[in-house]
Amino acid sequence: MSKPQFVGRSIELDLLDDLWASPSASLLILYGRRRVGKTRLLTHWLTQRHANKGIYWVAEPTSALDQLRSFSQALYNYQTPDEPAPLDFTYANWEQAFRQVALMASAEKFILFIDELGYLIEVNPPLAGILQKAWDRWLSKSKLILALSGSQMGLMQNMFTYEAPLYGRATAQVKLPPLPYAATQQFFPEYDTAQRATLYGIWGGVPAYWERLDPKTSILENIRHQLLPSNTLMQEEPRILLQDFINDPHNYVGIMRAIASGAQTNARISTRTGLSRGHISKYLSVLRETGFVRREVPITEDPSKSRRGHYHITDPFLRFYYRFVSAHQAQLALGEQQLILNTIETNLPQFMEQNTWQDMCREWLLRASVHGDIPHTLDGVGGAWHRTDYVDVVGINWAEHVLVMGSCHWHDGLESIGRIESLVNKADSIVPDDPHRWKVHFVAFASSGWSGHARERADWVVEQGSRNKNWDATGVQLIDLERVDADLTRWTLAAELN
Question: Which residue among 51, 156, 173, 240 is least packed, with the fewest CB closer than 10 Å?
Fold first, then answer.
């Protein structure tokens, strides 16, 4: 079965349709991590819904003169499709070119997509100011839809800050996120639920990565193929992603490796990398600003006051790369993959349990509280820990003094009643220490499901565990991967339709 040509993005497509329906000129800023699908979104909408009504033009990392000539010829060829532009044709300057765009959009709706805007600004920094003047003088008074897109996220974000020339002029500013987990069902119908979850845990929701995979082979075989010396994406991509923000990535790479390997506190990262805690804090601050790393504190504590922060890599692909691949470039260059594949195969269940499966369970809990699939509404969902007790999934409602505690397990076999007992035993240390009597609901997640004995005894275990405590149990739910998959898919589709 062939892969779908285009998946998801209904919200973004609706936004583009709204811009088309508007009688006024529109300026759309579209940015996001590399390969997330910005170009595919824009070209799909243009070719499928408004063919011959606009131009898609992508800047290249070449000289300013070459860029202007290429753009000029794109305009010329659109206006005279039967008479290609002379090889040396170019407008005298960008002001003249943008003036021509305004004329082309003076009578009817016209779409201009400029992709990889960062390449233009790098070789011609004044261009942002030129574009601002052109927008104010001509373009905003036309029927133009102007979409500016770029993968160099740091540059794109800085272009529209308060001090930047284009500040306040955008009709819409969209940071395109990766596709949600639910999209794997449409893109990879050949895979079962566990395979799709594992795939998402390795490659995340990046469409360009998905398109490189062969659903007729196993996940491990796809990993093997991506690690071939002739296939450099997996080795080169992390470096390229970091260099969009960071000029000297060496220490940042060390920190990312440390976090991916389980060193999640400032002290442990310092010990693993050999960097001082002061330097670690500076590097972590940059990584948090770029979105590569997030700091998480117990959901039961105030984030501004808690000193128990844990650091996590946000991007699944980077998590996987820095956990399993980054330190083995020499072996890969020699074609020695098997040792790495053996390590991946052995540790992948634990990696899934601590990362993507945990993320999926947290998303399920938050959405379930909205849709009434658990008996409590929640302010937020995260994790919670106290001394040696750590709980993967915790939701809280401060006003109603409600805590929902969950555990995540990723194994081939059915889980036993012991997992539920362990979760209940942690409640004493996780329930906030205040005068209120809290209500605690338990939700235990297991990828392969629960044994019959666990399902029969779960309510009794929770009831016994809550006796004579400063909290009252409100019930327990046992959830498996099939339930999480079905619910997340249903809820995601419903949100897109709304």
Answer: 51
